[in-house]
Amino acid sequence: MELIKTENIIKTYQDNGVPVHAVNGISLEVNEGEHIVLAGPSGSGKTTLLNLLGALDKPTEGKIFFEGDDLSLKSKKELSDFRLHKLGFIFQAYNLIPVLTAMENIEFSMMLLGVPEAERHQRSESLLEELGIAELKNKRPNEMSGGQQQRVAVARAIINNPKLVLADEPTANLDSKTGGHLLDLMDKMNEEKNITFIFASHDQQVIERARRLVKIKDGLVDNE
User: Fold this and answer.
1) Residues linked to residue 70 through DSSP beta bridges, in sequence order
2) Which parts of the chain are beta strand (E)?
3) Beta-strand (E) ranges in 71-189?
4) For the residues of 100-162, what is the DSSP string, one character each?
5) Does residue 4 contact residue 66 with C-beta atoms inside 8 Å?
6) Please, are residues 86 and 163 in contact by the beta-carbon 8 Å criterion?
7) CA distance 157 to 171
8) DSSP state of 174
9) Strand 61-66 and strand 196-201: pairing?
10) Residue 173 in contact with residue 146, Cβ under 8 Å?
C-alpha cells in the first residue's frame, strides 16, 4: 500500500541572491512498511528531502501526498496534527527537552494527544524496558551518554506507533557498536510493528542495512 508519493518536488533557497536547488525535481513512491535509506554526500539534499517528507518544510514546486492526501492543501494546524499523529522524528542532535527526564521526554507527545497519565506511564515504562534502558527513566539528557540519548529519542519517535519514522543521520554521533544496536532496534520495530523508516545517512553501516537504497546527488535521485 502506497504511503508517500512525491511529484517532481523542488526546494529552492536563496544564497546571496542566487537560487540554489537543494532538491531539484524528485519523484518518489514509498510503500507502507518499507525500510529506505537516502544515501549521498553532505550537501546532496538528503536532509532537505527528509524535512519535506515530514512536512517540516514545504516544497517550492511539486506535490507531496501522504496516504493520498495532498499535504500542500493542509493548514499549519492540520500539518501540526499530521506530524503528531502520523510521524516520528529522530534527529542527529537528539533534540530531547533538557529539563525533562527520559520518561517525560517519551511521554510528551502522548500528553499532547491527551493520553491518560496512567496509560502514558505504562506505555513508556514498557518501551523503556523493551529497549533495554529502563534504568534511564528518571535521568535527564545531560546525565546520559550519546547512545543513551539516541535510544530515548527512538523511544519518543515510536511511542505512538506512527506510520512513518524519519531519521536524519541517526548514527552520526555514535560508535559503531552503539550504532549497530540502534539499527537492530529499528529493524525490529520495522518488522514487528510495520513502521515505515526512511533514514538519511552516509554511514556505510546504515547503507548496508537498507532494504531499499535511494541515492541522492545534487538534489536529484541518482539512478546510475
Assistant:
1) 65
2) 2-15, 18-31, 35-39, 61-66, 69-70, 87-90, 164-168, 196-201, 212-217, 220-221
3) 87-90, 164-168
4) S-HHHHHHHHHHHTT--HHHHHHHHHHHHHHTT-GGGTT--GGGS-HHHHHHHHHHHHHTT--
5) yes
6) yes
7) 15
8) S
9) unpaired
10) yes
pTM: 0.89
Residue that is written with C-alpha cell 533534540 in the block:
95
Cell of 16: 546571496
Q: Find all residues with CB under 8 Å of 40, minimum gap 6, and list them.
A: 46, 202, 215, 216, 217, 222
Q: CA–CA separation, 179 vs 185, rounded Å?
A: 10
Residue 26 near residue 32 (C-beta atoms within 8 A): no
Query: Which residue has 544496536 as its cell numbers?
Result: 181
Residue that wins the pLDDT comparison between 181 and 136:
136
Distance (Å, whole) CA 140 – CA 142: 6
Alpha-carbon gap, residue 218 to 224, rounded angstroms? 13
Q: Give the domains, in start order, of the chain with CATH numbers.
A: 2-219 (3.40.50.300)
Amino acid sitting at position 133 = I
Output the 3-class SS for 105-122: HHHHHHHHCCCCHHHHHH
**pLDDT for residue 224:** 61
Model confidence at 213, pLDDT cuts 50, 70, 90, reads very high
In three-state secondary structure terms, 224 is coil
User: Which position has the grid cell 539499527?
Assistant: 183
State pLDDT tens for residues 160-184. 889 999 999 888 777 888 888 888 8
The predicted structure's pLDDT at residue 70: 95
